[in-house]
Amino acid sequence: MDRLALPIAIAAALALAAPAAALDEIFETRGPTIRVTTVADGLDHPWAIAFLPDGGMLVTERPGRLRLLNADGNLSDPIAGVPEVDARGQGGLLDVTLDPAFAENRLVYLSYAERGDGGNGTAVARGRLGDGGTTLEDVEVIFRQLPKVDSRQHFGSRLVFDRDGHLYVTLGERSQERFRMQAQDLSSHLGKIVRINPDGSVPEDNPFVGTDGARPEIYAYGVRNVQAAAINPRSGELWEIEHGPRGGDELNIIRPGANYGWPVVTLGVNYSGTTIGEGLKTKEGMVDAIYSWTPVIAPSGIIFYDGAAFPGWKGDLFVGGLASTALVRLDVDGDTVGGEERLLESLGLRIRDVAEGPDGAIYVATDESDGAILRIAPAD
Ligand SMILES: [Ca+2]
Question: CA angle, corner 28, sides to 37 and 39, nearest 5?
Fold first, then answer.
């Protein structure tokens, strides 16, 4: 190491130890000029954001904390009553979403990694947010992914309500080769998207109700690790984006009973570079992705933008990217994607979740040990 490099290395180490400075930066895009500001920081791997009717938001931190960030930017102490989580590897406290009737019932839904017989798995609990916003009360587990297996990866975990009040839960296939084939097995919740009622019961019109040996919560199967899902406001259908292996992140439109192929069909290869299965890119009876990325972006949260602040972006899909350190904007035209633009890439931050605020601004959570909530608004 030469004389010049040494002080730079020390400065870099000090910069890593210090909290990140609050951002206030202007960026040009192909459309509007945007201003990116820090709303909150000092969060430990924030995983999800859910806006409250009063303009505040609930934020999860992966180690197991749920906090209230009020509309004035004040971050609360951890809310009491959150279930115990298995915060190892990719596990922990994951998504948060509000009941469609939250204004009346104050019900909040959480997904998380839960320990139990056989290892761990994704679970969903709901509870009532106390009037002061400091407690979660009457907490009950409404769904458990079965079987539990021994893995620290691929919990999936996005929670999405549709227009009819059904709750979709996206479930990973837990990554390891010895159980990844369960994504094709209807007796297992691994590698599935399930659809339940808000109390955890099974809707009678689910596609595999009455099928021998199938778990009736299953709505679609053959998915890998879905951490991004949203209802398309134009069609009412669920869209999901899932992590591919090495290559092959996929965007799929989820239809009842459909098989999305994993691990029989994939556009990627194993991390080691070896072929997965027979290396099929498509197969009869399995649904092809409508858009994909190789190399991967590592997709996390998504929204269909529907606000007034960015009229030119209405209807576009915004995808948080982890490895890509970008907020990816997709031009959506009906059921097809016309192209993409990568925003915020130069910040080098892993984008974990995306939300649209009541002000029409776009908010993102950054997956860092000193993670932040950033606000993206028109510059003028
Ligand atoms: Ca697929």
Answer: 10
Please say if 154 is a catalytic residue. Answer: yes
The model's pLDDT over 130-157, given as tens digits with 9 standing for 90+, comes to 999 999 999 999 999 999 999 999 999 9
Helix (H) or strand (E) holding 351: strand 351-356
**Token representation of residue 333:** 């035209």
Distance, CA of 79 to CA of 133 (rounded, Å): 7
Amino acid at 143: F
Measured CA to CA, the distance from residue 322 to residue 351 in angstroms comes to 5
CA pair distance 125, 294, nearest whole angstrom? 35
> Which one is catalytic: 154, 166, 189, 243?
154
Report in angstroms the alpha-carbon separations of 188 from 207, 251, 313: 15, 23, 39
> What tokens were used for 67?
């906090």
Instruction: Give the chain's residues under pLDDT 50.
Output: 1-9, 11-17
- Do residues 94 and 104 lie in contact, with contact meaning Cβ atoms separated by under 8 Å? no
Q: From CA 14, how far away is CA 8, in angstroms rounded?
A: 10
Q: Give me ligand 1 centre to Cα 214, in Å.
A: 20
Please give the model's pTM, rounded to 2 decimal places.
0.94
For residue 15, give the H/E element and its range. helix 5-17
DSSP-derived pairing of the beta strands 24-27 and 218-221: unpaired
All domains of the chain in start order, with CATH: 5-378 (2.120.10.30)
- CB 115 within 8 Å of CB 86: yes
Report the separation in Å between the CA atom of 263 and the middle of ligand 1, taken as the mean of its atom positions: 8
Query: Could you tell me the distance, in angstroms and rounded to a whole number, from the CA of residue 277 to the centre of ligand 1?
Result: 13
* 181 SS3 class: helix
pLDDT in tens, 154-212: 999 999 999 999 999 999 999 999 999 999 999 999 999 999 999 999 999 999 999 99
Among residues 237, 196, 208, 242, the alpha carbon closest in space to that of 223 is found at 242
98's tokens: 């509000």
